[in-house]
Amino acid sequence: MVSGIVVALMTVPDVETGARIGRAAVEAGFAACANVVPGLRSIYSWKGKVCDDPEALVVFKTRAVLIKKLESLVRGLHPYEVFELVALPVVAGHAPYLRWVRENTIQRRA
To answer: Measuring CA to CA, which of 18, 52, 55, 76 is 20 to 30 A from 39?
Structure first.
């Protein structure tokens, strides 16, 4: 069963940036929760060069219909020229938790 809930992943340069963006997303109702995970090491290709940098990961729990709003909010706050924001569908989960996500996003606040 598809829940309409997604887990969205975003890398940031540090925990403080992740917390600032995560708080803004939750306060706006674009995510029910944002976990900021420190200690990430990212190895990636950028402008023809292989980079190896410390980062943090933000894990958002939200509704699929809110991803564009979340992306718009992040665009104004994220320091990267090209930032990662990918959403993975939640196909199943603990029903009370999924209900909580729905109840704590903007679609339910209206």
So the answer is: 76
